[in-house]
Fold this sequence. Notes:
The protein is an all-alpha fold. It is 71% helix and 2% strand. It has 14 helices and four strands.
Amino acid sequence: MHESVADIAQIISGATGYVYPNEYLLQWGLLIVMYPFLTGLVAGAFILASLERVLGIKELFPVYRLSLLAALAFLLAAPLPLLAHLGHPERSLEMFLTPNLNSAMAMFGFVYAWYLLVVLLLEIWFDYRKQIVIWSREKTGAMKFLYKILSLGIDDISPEALRFDDKIGKFITIVGVPSAFLLHGYVGFIFGSVKANPWWSSVLMPVVFLFSAIVSGMAVVLLIYMVTAWFRWKKPGMACLHKMGELLLYAMLVDLALEMLDFIHRLYESEESIHILRDLVAKRLFISLIISQVVLGSLCPLVGIVFARFGKLPDEVRRMLYFLSAMLVLIGIYSVRWNVVIGGQLFSKSLRGLTVYKTSLLGMEGLFMSLGLFILPFVILYVLVKIFPPWTGNEESAGETAAPS
Length: 405
């Protein structure tokens, strides 16, 4: 009787090999795929901003404030996939009311609160404080009232006060870099600590997640910078694009090397799970892993960035290569998240069979819900940009030139 039920389950789910009747339904879907994807964008965008603030990479000046605002926008949306997946979002308050230091998921609440309230909001406030005070004096109506509130009653913009703001801002940035590492590294830690799952159980999982986050954050800021420049009838500065392209190239090479090291380590160990993992890659994840992640998401953008940065090409061609490469990078990183979350649930606990995951269009775990969660940070960013314009009057000196009429 049990075998017949298993056969029916395999037919329904498209499974191959032996899968127990209670194994063909996946517990995590697109929402859990979106969660590490969004948190990775937060970490990568903040680290890109910190390079200009701490290391003084002046080529990144045009995207410094934009990176901070992008990190805040994605951070505000990052926990929403988890809350939607809970079904009862109010349960998330339990991690604050009854803290459990032994729970990795519960610790996320404290890391998130620290990163949002202490790191990002404070750094943005200190960086914009001078402009907030000026705007509170110049604006009228509701915006004047808003900036008055945001100034917190502190209207001192003397040189001494501004130097103090700069020192505090740099200190917060230095503290924020390891906080960004912790914010996204712990996501890889959660998956890597599941010893019962050979697809997830790897000591390199947190490091791979972290560097892929850096890659995705740099790519999304590059795209946002180019799109916002075009909407303002500006040409994205080549000096800024070249520097972001170089940093993105180096981060991708490290990320690709770590993923290859993890793969070689699995082959070298050759545990009993190696056969089901081989079938998983060949039969279920071939398109999403080999085609989407490796070829389209890694090799093609690497070639594109190399040609854009070091090739003798017209600037317009370079910009288009940067834009297409960044788009492909985001597709590749999303494929990484898909392959980890969904791929780790496609084989049976007995390591004897594979099942499939079918995406629905509607519903809480549907495709439209995931698209909405991906679009939401850009809507938030639009509002933040309206309140805190990230562009200054000396962008041209940093490599940005006005577009011809």
